[in-house]
Amino acid sequence: MHIPRNVLVTGAAGFIGSNFVHHLLAQDAAVQVVSLDALTYAGNRQNLEGLPDAARHVFVHGDICDAALVDRLLREHRIDTVVHFAAESHVDRSISGPGEFVRTNVTGTFTLLQACRQYWQVEAALGAASVRFHHISTDEVFGTLGPDDPAFTESTPYAPNSPYSASKAASDHLVRAWFHTYGLPVVLSNCSNNYGPYHFPEKLIPVIILGALAGRPLPIYGDGSNVRDWLYVEDHAEALLLVLSRGAPGESYNIGGENERSNLELVRTLCAILDAKRPKPSGSYADQITFVADRPGHDARYAIDPARIARELGWRPSVTLDEGLERTVQWYLDNEAWWRALQSRQGVGTRLGVGAVSDPHRGTVSGANRRSPEE
Length: 375
Ligand code: NAD
Fold this sequence. Notes:
- The protein is of the alpha/beta class.
- Helices cover 38% and strands 15% of the residues.
- The protein contains eleven helices and twelve strands.
- The strands form three sheets. A seven-stranded parallel β-sheet has the order 3-2-1-4-5-6-10, with helices on both faces. Strands 7-9-11 form a three-stranded mixed β-sheet.
- α2 packs across α4 and α6 crosses α8.
- It is globular.
């Protein structure tokens, strides 16, 4: 059992990181949290407003690749727990500009591992029970499944297909190696597609909700048959707390919602929820659905087998997909100022990952640029 006391959360201004910080501060009245985030196009300081006990939270604007900064934060705040979310996370952006994915996801993870090893093991000689490095990863490292293949387990071989998933796989391997080689007390978790509050408006679910409300076409990649396994982000945050405190060092845990849906089914469900909550003068939001060119190398199906975390840590998702989608649509209806402020950010509303390759962090991507849904 590990009891986190002084926690460094990387990528805390992003989608899952910010949900986790809200959840952690609400669940643990003694914990102190330092949020480290570079505030890239995906980071948003507003995601960390209204925290349950803001006096126990510090925000630091900085880069996980900055070794001197990471070293200083570990010592200054006597960090005993790192929860590592910071990453470039969008597959389409990784196709257009993979360099930043290697820098943050691989070199950034390496920088954090080295800093923790130096501070925890070499200098402070802290034992495995008192410190923990929790690396957050994805089911995409396992590659793609056929329609009848069994879901991914913790022992499924890695077979990443996109620059994003390859960079995440590389970081997972580094984390594993720091456990086996140096005995750094790490835990890993690989989760399926998250959804819920604070989801950045370039990802599929917010793109569909906001596009529907704006009366835009709702483009679907390919024929919409790609299947994803959806996990409500607040259920994920609870699972992460369990893995962090009760997971066995060196082990990985798959976290999934057992909610497989094709993209087309998912979009139709969102349209039906919107039809009920904010009816159009005539017709359905589903009338706005349109099919566009597929993503290169688009994985057909992801599915997580969460049997291990259920059996060993007693975790189960608390909401069904229908309940979670209903809550999510309501959150976007109630938080218009939040998403409007993000719509002018670089690349949002632009089709990335098709046509000529360039760096989406630096400039406009050539090739097709119509609006489209993206996971
Ligand atoms: P996100 O893109 O919303 O947030 C990433 C955050 O990291 C942003 O706030 C960004 O500013 C920050 N960041 C990026 N580069 C940084 C750097 N060099 N230094 C410091 N901060 C930096 O991502 P997310 O959806 O919240 O995902 C969080 C983690 O979960 C990622 O590691 C991702 O691979 C993993 N994951 C996400 C999903 C999902 O469905 N969203 C599914 C599986 C795994």
